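Table 4 source record.
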Amino acid sequence: MKRTSNRKDAMIEIIPSRFDTSASLSFRTALRQRGVRLWPVFFDRLSRISIGVALCVLISGCATPRSAKEFAEPVSLVSRVGKERSCEATGPFAPAGSIRLEQHVLVSDSEGNIPKNRHDGSFSKAFRTIMAGYVEEFNRRKRLGNAMGKDSPPPRLLFYFNGGLNFQADVEAQAERQIPCMMADGYYPVFFVWDTGHIPSYWEQIWNVYDGQVRHEPWVKLRAPFLFGTHVISGFSGAPVDYLVEGRRFWRAVRGIPPCSMTVRNTPDYCPEEQRVRFVDQQGGADPNESTVYAAPSADLSEPEIGSLLGYSALFPVRLFSAPLAHGLGDATWENYLRRTRTTIRRTVEFDLDRYAPGRIHDGLNPDEFRKVNDSFTKGTGVFARFFETLLQYYKGKRRLCSEWFCDESRTLSPDRGDSGSSAEHKSDDDAIVSALANARITLIGHSMGAIVINELVERFPDLPYGDIVVMASAASLRDTRRVITHYFENPFTPVPKMRGKPRDTRFYSLMLHPLNDAGESTGAGLIPSGSLLMWIDEMYEVPKTPEDKTFGYWPTAKAGRRMFGHAAQVRTLYRVFNRAEAASGEESNPVRHGDFNNDDMCFWRPAFWGVNGTGWESLYSDLPPEALQACRKKE
């Protein structure tokens, strides 16, 4: 024991080197009678435990991406039947034998480039590999149709964008499980992946990121310990506000009569008029005059959770320490999440005028090649923007872009570095891609931060043939979503002569958790603050300057803002709010946590999951198998 004395009040403090949890009550009583204070001992130990637990929660789930060889090799579907997959890949369109991830996954690294261990770091190889897979599937469908004596519709292109708190390896594993199911439901899926793992993102932010760019100079790394200390101090200095905000939200979520904004169907009579919503089942289909809302009549029902409530309340002393860390360190992590998300569209190297200075690391292009790429991809040189720009050129029948594929001086196409094949082979491939895209329909699905990427891409490339735009628990702001979606629907389709001037036949879907589930979501077994990622964004990481800056994927925000969209957007929009209660095994799948949307048994790619049934829009999906209009069931 270490003894210290306070001369002012002669109080003796005893701080044991090891806290004896088996100490008897009589011993503790004796210590109290002698003036020994155990409260500092409790807080000292509690702080150490909370920090350890927080790190454990953060570190769990870190995964290593598969090698370049594993990425390119076929994945046998026979060996994976019944393993690690909850969705069903059955029917005539289900793939047989194997799939290749390199035909279905496009990865962006931290700076908006293709990693060297994916498609050899070559954009042209990535694009051709993915589109070659689409052409193969297009031709396979035609052969199936001929064998059945009828026309077989082409597969719909499905572009999925992951959200925050996702490691690249985890999203690739998700793709491996779900691609066969998506193909069986009539899609050709492509997963647009960027790493948003928590610890790597935070470490990069303090170790390499300066002024929004990844830098490798020693002076940038020297800032790391000071930044870490600043983040910890900032978190603890703002802790009282966080306690109050989280406490108020937690109380609003658990009280017997929730406020107007926290209800879906059971809206109290005293709520304002804009809170009153007519749902699909009440009006017999989609409303032809305004946006439509789909929610089950039992959406607000749930069983009382007294045990979890008491357990969460009991862990409040732990959150006294974990909440400041979640805010201080999480704020910096969120900044890098956003930077990584936005570099998929426009790389920061485009703004770096010193990129060729001695000692600087750049992307390997010489100045002339860099200028050609910039001139060709004015809407962004990030890998996702380049993919969409190139796809648009093929859809218009213009084939590839010379400046991207490095033409020679005579403007004759030549393969870029890391690629192989003759010009004749490339031209044949180009013709096949153009033919397959002639009547293509594209479905965009973004979860959480994926909605931010979708907004960027739809705004820059509105002339691609989007059939459906689906956002799940969108982390994009109401302001940005309203601006992009309203502008998209109010401007006619213009890319090809046959569609020029015609109104868009696209549908926009916004899927959301029940607001009480957003507000009360428990993370880390209650050891860190409650609330979904959307709550953390609005309350800690990007405090809104006006209500329109709140995240669009939170029902109270969308509910108040749905009439702010233009009329052309409103009549083509469907909101779906899921039930508060978790589905039992065998019932229709129902997400109750922010990350549940990506679960295999949700089948988030099916129109049934979006709430289409009963709207009158079912005929828009007549080219898909009947299973696509059937909800998946929760598995054990």
